[in-house]
Specification:
11 helices, mainly alpha
Length: 220
């Protein structure tokens, strides 16, 4: 079982992280701070999805207070990757102007999610992972948005696996290294798509990694 207390402690930790990175970005406009802010929010989003699936409550809606900040940070990131410096500067200024609002909305979202979290039995954890893995395998046979969605689901699996009790981790027996390599390869392909360069070579690398996905997701 994954207890309510464990999930709330994890949520508190990630809420503290995004707030810290938000302040660092306000002071320095550091791209790394923006990246780490997005990572912390992705982990909160993974927990929200997991909580919704295993509690039957509308926990995912409580992530909405973080969405605007997350998306605006993504616009800045993408502008930097594509060397659109004017757009990056403009969007950074807009982001900084709304930092107080982002912090206020984000804190409220965290409190709401904190209040709806419930303990999750081991059976539901196993079922959730089984469904996510089947869904991910199907998405990996496609391309475009579906391939990007597959990466998001893989990241959710990896984020949540670290939070699980050791006996459940052992039972799931996920090959973390393989899944991490796969999501990283999809990320590199997606970066080329954003930059509007030929992504065929990197897509081919993803296809090679995705071969026999269901046979490779568990440690041998």
């Amino acid at each position: 079982m994954l207890t309510k207390k464990q999930q709330q402690q994890y949520l508190d930790e990630k809420n503290g992280e995004w707030q810290e990175h938000l302040q660092t970005f306000a002071d320095s406009q550091s791209p790394e701070s923006l990246h780490q802010l997005r990572v912390a929010i992705k982990k909160i989003r993974a927990l929200a999805r997991f909580s919704k699936a295993c509690s039957g409550r509308k926990a995912i809606s409580d992530f909405n207070g973080l969405k605007t900040m997350f998306r605006q940070a993504g616009i800045i990131r993408d502008a930097g990757k594509t060397q659109q410096l004017h757009l990056q500067t403009t969007e950074t200024e807009r982001f900084v102007q709304h930092i107080k609002q982002y912090r206020r909305q984000g804190k409220r979202a965290g409190k709401r999610l904190h209040s709806v979290i419930r303990s999750v039995p081991a059976g539901c954890i196993r079922d959730w992972y089984a469904l996510q893995l089947v869904s991910t395998g199907i998405l990996l046979t496609s391309s475009g948005d579906d391939l990007h969605k597959a990466r998001k689901q893989i990241k959710d699996l990896l984020y949540m696996e670290k939070l699980l009790p050791p006996p459940v981790q052992k039972e799931l027996n996920l090959d973390r290294n393989y899944l991490d390599q796969l999501q990283e390869a999809i990320g590199q392909w997606h970066d080329d798509i954003i930059a509007a360069v030929d992504a065929s070579e990197k897509e081919a690398a993803v296809r090679r990694l995705a071969e026999n996905f269901y046979l490779r997701i568990n440690r041998s």
